[in-house]
Amino acid sequence: MTLLATSLVLWAASTLAASPPPPPSPPTPSPGLCQPLASLSFAHAPTTLPGLKAQLIYNNVSEPRGIRFDNRQNLLVVERYIGVSSLTFRNDSGCIGWEKRAVVRNETLEHGIEIGPGEGPFQYLYASSMEYVFRWKYNPATTSVVGAPVTIAWNMSNVGAIPPDHVTRTLLLEPPVNGKSTHLIVSRGSAGNVDDAAADPNNGSAQIRRFPLDKPIPAKGYAWQSGQLLSWGNRNGVGIALSKDNKNLWEIENGSDEVFWRGVDVHEDNPAEELNLIPIEGNEKIPIQRKFYGYPSCFTAWNSSAVPPNPTGPQFNFDTGAQFSIRNPPTTPTDAWCADPKNNVPPKLSLQSHTAPLDLVFYQGPKVYSKLGINTKWAGDAFASLHGSWNRDPPSGYAVIRIPFKKDGSGPVAPSNSKTGYEKLVWMPDTTRCPDECIRPVGVAFDQASRMFVTSDDSNEILIVESAGA
């Protein structure tokens, strides 16, 4: 038995010992395909921080994107353009490994997934396409859905880009009240690299909205524009997570590519990726102008020293975290306008340009005793996947990072102008071989034993990160 197999057996035993007994005589799940752990190895192995190890738990998954655990610790994963599948750990004479089954077949699904309380023993499973958010009644005992889906939201397609750009619609449930979900938050990206139409909040792109679930849902679902506007000017905020007190939303955002400033190419190390704070509590009282996060004109500087001197005009000498405008004077907005927080909400932390963050999750610590989980001292910190660049030489990203947070959860430990506000936990040792010979992290989720699961869409893999001493 391999080290990973032994660890998983120990985890399964501790989880089952701490969990309530399952409901009596559940229906037999449909047959799935189990991949023995001993048969698996990375196509291109990543490096990990000392004290951690990364192991492959499944391969040949079709572009795995967002992931969530149901209440029986089955891992649900969006397989892009196929649907939703489940992974269930097996430890029997037939297989020690993870068994994959089809849960939903829908070729329009892209990325977003969420799961929350349903009726009786069922849960509600949510998933998104470019245009729709769907909800199914889901049985965790059989990892199957019951009946046809309900449309929760629609009219989310971006018009203008051919082929369509930024098609993910990330989903996030707010905590339930009296056992029922109250609101679903949906993040929608822009229609392209620089989507000028996003400067109008009525356009609908590059913004985050909130939809009520605690009252009757319209027959056709909520039209996008009917949702509460939490923020706009968010170019492509694929990663979203609730703050520790659930009063705010954290959003991690992809900056633009091929950016120029006053005719000078600054794109190699600019703009920065952003970690933004968006109020939820009291949001309805905030004027719409104060919900603006900059895009498509205002961006965040990462490294001005990498920009070549401008022989005929002003120099790009912005500090890390400072705001600048990509518009050439006299076109507005100006650099000064973008730098005013009354006009444009600046990020709480900046990240290396073009790393392409795609998920954001807060680590809560283990829910059951286990030696397998990652460092419990990291509880309360944020973890993000960096999918990796296509517009930088050498490539950047291709990693999973930890962002240390203050103990009260109010924000990152590092100041907003820091270049060292996060550390890599899993990364590719030689990014010059990326993207073709690298993992490309997308979805991140923690199980009850505080092991971290990560999807890699380009390599069609799902990996687990746990304590090296397990």
What topology emerges from the helices and strands here?
Layout: H1 3-18, E1 33-36, E2 47-48, E3 52-59, E4 64-69, E5 75-79, E6 83-91, E7 96-105, E8 109-117, E9 123-129, E10 133-139, E11 144-154, E12 169-173, E13 183-188, E14 207-212, E15 222-223, E16 228-232, E17 239-242, E18 248-253, E19 260-261, E20 264-265, E21 273-279, E22 298-300, E23 323-325, H2 335-339, E24 349-351, E25 357-362, E26 382-386, E27 399-403, E28 423-427, E29 441-446, E30 452-456, E31 461-467
Parallel strand pairs: 11-15
Antiparallel strand pairs: 1-7, 2-28, 3-31, 4-5, 5-6, 6-7, 8-9, 9-10, 10-11, 12-13, 13-14, 14-16, 17-18, 18-21, 19-20, 21-24, 22-23, 25-26, 26-27, 27-28, 29-30, 30-31
Describe the structure.
The protein has two helices and 31 strands. The chain is mostly beta strands and 470 residues long. Strands 1-7-6-5-4 form a five-stranded antiparallel β-sheet. A five-stranded antiparallel β-sheet has the order 2-28-27-26-25, with no helix packed on it. Strands 8-9-10-11-15 form a five-stranded mixed β-sheet, with no helix packed on it. The longest helix has 16 residues. It is globular and about 75 Å long.
